[in-house]
Amino acid sequence: QAKHLGTHGVQLHDPSMIDRRAADAQLSDDLAGALDRGELHVLYQPLVDLAGSRPVGVEALVRWQHPRLGPVSPAQFIPIAERSGTITSIGLFVLETACRQVAGWDGLYVSVNLSPRQLQEPTLVQDVLDVLARTGLAPHRLVLEITESALVDESAGIAMLSEFRAHGIRVAIDDFGTGYSSLHYLTRLPVDILKIDRSFVAELNGTPEGSGITEAVLRLSQVLHLTTVAEGIETTEQAAELQTLGCGIGQGYLFARPLPPAELLEMLVTTAS
Ligand code: C2E
Ligand code: MG
Ligand code: MG
Ligand code: MG
């Protein structure tokens, strides 16, 4: 009888959820050694001046080539790395790889994602400055991307952003508009760039309703003297509307997917002059 109840108890959980937990635990184990085994690499997606369609910078995006599963999406493994703590070493690997790479691409800056957990590392600012010194990238050519949620009630994290900026490194808010922070709170954040989330870009359709949020963000940026970058531009209509609305920089499959260094370089050569 007791045995029966026990078996029954397990079924209170959705079996697919248990499968997923087991899969996540396996990925977490695999990820712990992935860096040392050379399974991680970095791709670069152009950030394009919407007026001239030329790349002004790149966003560094990590990739994991799992030996059995093939490519695993960062949307899947970054949250796992965040929970286990491996994000600290993965994050520094991406930063150093990207800074070294972009130091050789004159005139471009590089935007690197920071996870919330990295902002809790007391050594983060010094680690970043050490990477710049080792790779020779000038601080004004580095942008650090963080999400709103990483900063809510994190006064230590906010103090770090001010430190970065004091060293000439710029700070961007990623996926802007999808977090929960109030506009009032945002006006006090030490940032330089707002990245309009691609969900708002997808709504652009030439109507006032479609462009409402994007227009509001652009207006806010103007008042606060911030730069805006629109994410996820997939059509020429979206690019044209964003330019008309006064957005300076765009990113998306319309221009290029995240690319390996050799292909990015090729794109730089063909769009030059
Ligand atoms: P994100 O920082 O917002 O990066 C933009 C994501 O949008 C990238 O996905 C990019 O490939 C995708 N994207 C770009 N243009 C388009 C488009 O036109 N349409 C669509 N549908 N998607 C587009 P990706 O590379 O899969 O990365 C997903 C997320 O994983 C990133 O979102 C970021 O939050 C995280 N991530 C990636 N690399 C790193 C990293 O090195 N460190 C940390 N902490 N997070 C990372
Ligand atoms: Mg980003
Ligand atoms: Mg983003
Ligand atoms: Mg996004």
TrEMBL record:
One of its GO terms (molecular function) is cyclic-guanylate-specific phosphodiesterase activity. Residues 24-272 form the EAL domain. It comes from the Bacteria. This is Diguanylate cyclase (GGDEF)-like protein. The lineage of its organism: Bacteria, Bacillati, Actinomycetota, Actinomycetes, Micromonosporales. The chain holds residues 515 to 787 of 787 of the full protein.
